[in-house]
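FIELD: query
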Amino acid sequence: MEKLRTALESRCPGRIGPIRLLDSAERWDLTRLAPTVVNALRLLISEDPSSENEQLLLRSARTLRLDALETDVIAILDTGRQGVLPCLEALVELDCTDAELFFDLAMSSVPNSKTRRIAAAALGAIPSNEAFELLL
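FIELD: result
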């Protein structure tokens, strides 16, 4: 576990450390490593905001359920470079509770599309009065 932490904190491996971590995520309890992974991904994006690195951040957020990356996922969504669906799927996995965001995504998507269905389901899953009112 310590070797993995060192690899993630090192600037040398770039994308390799997070990719290896994702590929074996099911085998380990990564709770203690979450802050290190989040920092490594943010550093990677700040140094190289490429499409591949954004995809890696989205995959990591979704697979490892790194809720600290919610704002980063929303920032990627706002750029539009990765498309709505991958960002929406990551936000759902992170248990995002931004009712207005899900409402806006549902309303701006094509009727009966996967994006609309996921956004509407996410909105319905939020246990708040605001989400309930938006559903009406």
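FIELD: remark
The radius of gyration is 16 Å.
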